[in-house]
Amino acid sequence: MFTFVDKDSGKTLWCSTPKGAQGQPYKEVPDLGKDNDNTFSAIVGFDSIGHPIMDTTILDDLFVKQVTDYLQSDLDALAKSWGYDDINAIAKYLANATSPFNAECQLLADYTDSVWGYGSGLLDAWKAGGAKPSMDEIIVGMPVKPVKPV
């Protein structure tokens, strides 16, 4: 189910079925709250037959968030698999050149740089008019993960 909020009236509108997305009337429902992850302020109006007119910049922002959230979770999962709380936990070991963990943290830091460089490049190309990549394409194109030293 998709839930949308009309920007002008603040009313929450919804379409509960695929059939509704094909022209069934949208119905008012009680306000779901601004913090509800299923609520998008993307409807800017309705056309002459009642279909919503979407503010695609909001949907684009949601895509950027989906990509960056995926990249961050991938980095955090790798760091956790190496025994760290998350990718940010490696910073304290990078700062200490004599730490026994410095070398493996440097591998993680290099991978982090390559992941964010990759993701930024994809999003920049898309924003410049390139094709919008699917999440499957993004995942397949990810940089090769480093192997934890033994």
What would you note in describing this structure?
The chain is α+β, with helices and mostly antiparallel strands and 150 residues long. It has 2 domains: 2-54, no CATH class; 57-140, no CATH class. Helix content is 44%, strand content 15%. The chain has helices at 18-21, 56-81, 91-94, 102-127, 135-140, and strands at residues 2-6, 12-15, 27-29, 39-46, 52-54. A 5-stranded mixed β-sheet has the order 3-2-1-4-5. Helix 2 packs antiparallel against helix 4. The longest helix has 26 residues, at 56-81. The protein is elongated. The model is unreliable at 14-41 (pLDDT under 50).
Short description:
With 150 residues, the chain is α+β, with helices and mostly antiparallel strands.
Tertiary shape: elongated
What is the CA-CA span between the terminal residues?
Answer: 47 Å
Main β-sheet description: 5 strands, mixed
User: Which structural class fits the helix and strand makeup?
Assistant: alpha+beta
The average pLDDT score comes to: 77
- Assembly context of the chains: single chain
- If strands are numbered along the chain, what order do they take across the biggest sheet? 3-2-1-4-5
Observed structural traits:
single chain, 150 residues, alpha+beta, 5-stranded mixed sheet, 2 domains, elongated
SSE layout and pairing:
Elements: E1 2-6, E2 12-15, H1 18-21, E3 27-29, E4 39-46, E5 52-54, H2 56-81, H3 91-94, H4 102-127, H5 135-140
Helix pairs in contact: 2-4
